[in-house]
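Sample 3 of the quickstart, ligand zinc ion:
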Amino acid sequence: MRIDVSELLRTSRGTLSFSFSELLTGCGNEIDGYIFDTPVEFIGNLENINGVLRVVGSLKAEYKNTCSRCLENLKGGLSLDIHESIVEDGSDDDPDVYTYKDGIADIGRIAQDNIILNMPMRLICSEDCKGLCPLCGVNLNVSQCDCGKDHFDSRFSKLEGYFKDKKPND
Ligand SMILES: [Zn+2]
Ligand SMILES: [Zn+2]
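Result:
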């Protein structure tokens, strides 16, 4: 998402509109298990305010992931308002500021950082999701199992008997 801002920098208070529809790069389209395999749309304006570029825009991204309880595939989307500034490279010691260099501003990192900040911490298919049975792995939203009813299967029953038969200090 590279923008040639050399003309804009020559015009005080000038603006430049941009529109991108690109795959996220630099993160392999995956952030913390969230898959971004469709283009991210980022449109907006840059304004030159005494050499600081003000970015105002909106960003849309779609992601795929699985429900953290039942592991069903899920899709979701983000729709974000973006307000950031880009300063000339070398004009600020803070490594976290966004910079432009040689008349080029790359707003890909702005897109990526805003996506990371706004992703849901945990994804569930529904508040009522029953998840998977921890013993047999069955999806409890679609079927039932008998695990909850009888925790001890035959192997454990035999073991119980073994301990009972054993005399103390034997
Ligand atoms: Zn679920
Ligand atoms: Zn079960």
